[in-house]
Design a protein that fits this description.
7 copies of one chain form a homoheptamer.
Chain A: E1 3-5, E2 9-14, H1 17-22, E3 25-26, E4 37-43, H2 47-52, E5 58-61, E6 67-71, E7 74-80, E8 84-88
Antiparallel strand pairs in A: 2-4, 2-7, 4-5, 5-8, 6-7
């Protein structure tokens, strides 16, 4: 099953905290907040977005952003371009 | 009776939870939330939308979006483009 | 007396519930809500709107939209394009 | 004394309820609301507006809109284009 | 000392109530409200505004608009174009 | 140390009340409000702004606007173009 | 690990208060507020931004702006162009 985000959205899966720590980026907040780093699974239909964000990119996204969905019991997020803060290389 | 959405809207019917589970996408939230996956019945008059979304497509739409209508005792939703998160292929 | 909506508005009259049921579209909400289906009596001065909506069209409009007016003791609504969800054919 | 509205505004005088009833348009609301029909006295400097609204036109305007002014003890309203719902012919 | 409003603003001085009554325009509101008629002292740098509003023009401006300043113990207002309702000739 | 405002901002220093009174402009408000007159120290990178506002200009700025900063124990403000009401010559 | 801000954002690291005092800019507020001066580590993908802000620039940013992230136990901020007040040379 393939999920194609519409327009300027990306489909991402969150990177586990341990893995994220290896990569050594943590985005903590008030307390035990989930890291806000994720891997891009699919890029939306917007062409300008496709030039800037690629499948496999790791992104940092802003707090309280993203729509949660679950596919085959795995959680994903759909994040809008305006909530993508940076790409981690 | 035919319903033609105006401008950048689509007419959709929600996909039953069982059927959605077969397709294995669930979009749960706080508790017993309806899956937010639906099948496109009609695409609005906007030409750019028509290039991106087709009749028969399955879409995931954002929470609290869509206007409910009932035709021949069957419920439908009219969803704006900005609330279509992704197309499921 | 003729009423010409300005810009991107339409003048409509609500379709009676019985008649609407024959046409079999009902747009219920929390409780006894009026059906939100109406017949277009006049189309505004906006040319793009005139291409998409015609006198005699039946429209579905969004909740809490429209300005009520009364002409010769008959009630009408003036609805903006952005509140027209679909055209029923 | 001449009052020239600036930009996309019109100067109007409200049509008395009796006269408005002869014309048979009433725009009632919760209770004893003033009819919202008025006669155009002057059209603003905006050229596009001047093509659509003429001195002498009767307009219906939206609720809670318009700035009241008084000239020679007579009350007028200055109404923005966006609050003009329709022109009555 | 010369005050040049920036962009689409005008510098005005309020017209005294007595003088305003001679001119016979009063813009009362809930109670003892100051008349909202003023004389233009300087027009902002915006060229389009300069075509529509001239030094010496009497304007009517909308309620709660304008920034008060005091020069040589005399009060002035700086009013934005969007708050100028009409020009009185 | 040089501070270059970005885009359509200006760096200003407030003019002392005594000095401001000599220049005789006071912008009082509810009570003991600081005069809102200031001298331009640096103009932002926006070219259109640079045509309208020059280093050394005295400006009047709107209430509650400006970001305070302190350089070498001296206070400055960074004010956006939209909050510059007028230039005093 | 490289962090590339997306669109019109910059990645910055805050300048320590002592260092900032040497540079002698302090941006105090109600009480013990952190100085809002920071050094640019990476500039976003937006080309116009890249012309105005360079890696190594010291910026002053507005209050309550910026998203905090932590890389290798060091804190950074991602700040949008609209929150960059000035560049310090």
């Amino acid at each position: 099953m393939k999920i194609k985000p519409l327009d300027d959205r990306v489909l991402v899966e969150q990177i586990e905290e341990e893995e994220a720590k290896v990569g050594s980026i943590i985005i903590p907040d008030t307390a035990k907040e989930k890291p806000r780093m994720a891997k891009v699974i699919a890029v939306g239909t917007d062409e300008d977005l496709q030039e800037h964000v690629k499948v496999g990119d790791k992104i940092i996204y802003s707090k309280y952003s993203g729509d949660e969905i679950k596919v085959d019991d795995k959680e994903y997020l759909i994040v809008q371009r305006g909530d993508i803060l940076a790409i981690v290389g």
